[in-house]
Design goal:
350 residues; mainly alpha; two-stranded antiparallel sheet; 12 helices; 4 strands; single chain; elongated
């Protein structure tokens, strides 16, 4: 038979426990969680990290990943930042939404503006000086024909400004990297210095002489491509303007010769791949050195260096044009007094 005394004791204890108030049951019953040792994971939930002050007040906010109102936890340097404050290559590198050239260009501009706060200033100085030189030279050369033939000045100005933009853009550093596979040629080229004399960032492996020489060769190829495109575009634009003026302006007298389209393209390609490549690498290296000293020294030095560079480039180009003959005869659309012209040649079956 079962022990009735022990059964009676168990039933009596259960009755007392059920009849006890709820507040007493909570206070007298120990919580299992309070008896467990605190783990490292539990302690880290209340850890706070400093957040970079972006308000300019000089005070730093904190963020935790607990149940408070401070939001999610942030690492000490912020997400995706390296020790220099530059964005990482993976987390904060916004990939282009499409492969459209305009989208890639805008992404490249954002990357350069973020990497170099003086990029816009350098670009404006280069384009402004070149524009002033071109307008001044055309006024002196055309004199009273400057306004009647102002479209030729605008044509030369537009091509020159496109070239200036490319010359500054290609040598400017950028914080963005593409999604090229590690070890691929494109991946290796993206980690070369932006120009030959760029200072090595503190957070990466210093640039070697080989990497700088590779940069010089790569920029030479890029400059050559830009030179060929701009040379062909400039010569073709001038010939197109002459054709339009000759067709619709009865008093316009076309020049006897014009520059060959392909010849000008090859000449510009060679010139920009050699002379421009050397000069602009030197300019960017000296500019960076002066800007590290002070913003005022960099600004003044940028104006002086780019003015001298434009003058040296123009003088060299004039010398090259004197040594090579880029001119080809222009056959006028309207027949001249001797009957030689495009219409006369068409009538003669030529």
């Amino acid at each position: 038979m079962p022990d009735t005394s022990s059964t009676t004791a168990v039933v009596s204890a259960a009755t007392e426990l059920v009849s006890m108030p709820a507040s007493n049951s909570v206070s007298t019953t120990p919580d299992i969680a309070d008896q467990l040792p605190t783990s490292s994971t539990t302690q880290s939930s209340s850890t706070t990290y400093p957040v970079k002050d972006l308000s300019g007040t000089g005070t730093a906010a904190t963020a935790d990943n607990g149940d408070g109102d401070n939001g999610a936890a942030l690492p000490p340097d912020g997400p995706g930042d390296d020790n220099d404050g530059n964005h990482g290559d993976d987390e904060d590198d916004p990939k282009p939404s499409s492969s459209h050239p305009l989208s890639l260009l805008l992404r490249g501009l954002r990357g350069r503006l973020a990497a170099d706060p003086f990029f816009t200033q350098k670009l404006l100085v280069e384009c402004g000086l070149d524009a002033a030189i071109i307008v001044s030279v055309n006024i002196a050369a055309r004199q009273e024909r400057f306004l009647p033939e102002i479209e030729f000045t605008f044509c030369q100005l537009a091509v020159s400004l496109l070239s200036d933009f490319a010359l500054v853009y290609l040598l400017a550093p950028s914080i963005y990297r593409s999604a090229a596979a590690p070890g691929s040629l494109r991946y290796k080229l993206e980690f070369l210095p932006s120009h030959v004399f760029q200072k090595s960032p503190s957070a990466v492996t210093p640039f070697t002489k080989t990497s700088r020489f590779t940069t010089f060769l790569m920029k030479g190829v890029q400059y050559s491509a830009v030179g060929y495109a701009m040379g062909c575009l400039g010569a073709a634009s001038v010939q197109g303007l002459i054709w339009i003026r000759e067709r619709f302006d009865p008093i316009f007298v076309p020049p006897p010769t014009v520059q060959s389209i392909t010849g000008t393209g090859f000449a510009w390609s060679t010139f920009m791949g050699t002379s421009s490549n050397v000069r602009y690498n030197l300019v960017h290296g000296l500019e960076d050195y002066l800007y590290r000293k002070s913003a005022k020294a960099g600004t003044l030095g940028s104006v002086v260096l780019r003015l001298l560079n434009n003058y040296a480039g123009a003088a060299q180009w004039v010398y090259v044009c004197d040594k090579i003959d880029l001119d080809v005869p222009w056959v006028p659309m309207r027949p001249a007094k001797d009957g030689k012209g495009r219409k006369a040649r068409r009538r003669n079956g030529k």
